Sequence to fold (291 residues):
Amino acid sequence: MIGKQKSYNDLFFDLFVFIFGIVILIITAYPLYFIIIASFSDSIAVNSGKVWLLPSNITFEGYIKVFQDERIWRGYRNTILYTISGTFISLLFTLPAAYSLSRKDLPGRKIIMMYFIFTMFFSGGLIPTYLTVRQFGLANTFWVLIIPFSVSAYNLIIARTFFSSTIPVELFEAATIDGCGNTRFFVLIVLPLSKAIIAVIGLYYAVGQWNQFFLSLIYVRKESLVPLQMVLRNLLLQNQLISGVYNEEDQRIGEIMRYSFIIVSTVPIMFFYPLIQKYFTKGVMIGSIKG
Fold:
């Protein structure tokens, strides 16, 4: 059977959507593309406006200086540790809580859920939070960026919606008949069936940890605990130079390093995303449509 040919209005609409999508793609992707070509270009050419489509006076000096800076390697190490441990602990707290709240036989689950939702709109404020964190002895420690802010109410709601719409009650009843308890059912049955939402929530938490700088700005003072994004912030906003000598050559190197550092700090998370893209799309659609 030959499909029905599209009308002129449909063709015009498809053409409009295609052109509109290309424009949005260019607007979204060009800033990243500019940073890439600027990282390979001489800072004088970048500042004079000669770099806008192709790199000019190609140089790798910025990347060489970036990888020679000890602060960057230390920031990389800290950020990787924060991301891995923070994502694991966040999932460890979020997934069991979300599954428990998705169970209709949990006493007072609506009241508990209201407490979680309440935190999305109201908080104790920065100063009371800082005093609380310091009173628990977490300030200026490795755990301050992981434990106090490990659970996101938004991610909890997404995971709860996924569990309530995907894990049937009959499956739990069948497992109970076979002698399976709640913990065993969650670990052996629910988690293997929830790869999509685990990938989505894990990506959200991992990206948040990787880009985290505000919490470290407030709670971390030790240079040995500073994450990568704080090093990037200091370089971009405070104009910190490599040698500490403020001359034209160091200023030029600092300009090159800014773009190179942005690329170096962004590449790992960009390579990680395609690995879980299929789970990400599936999990987001389930969490948004059903509920």
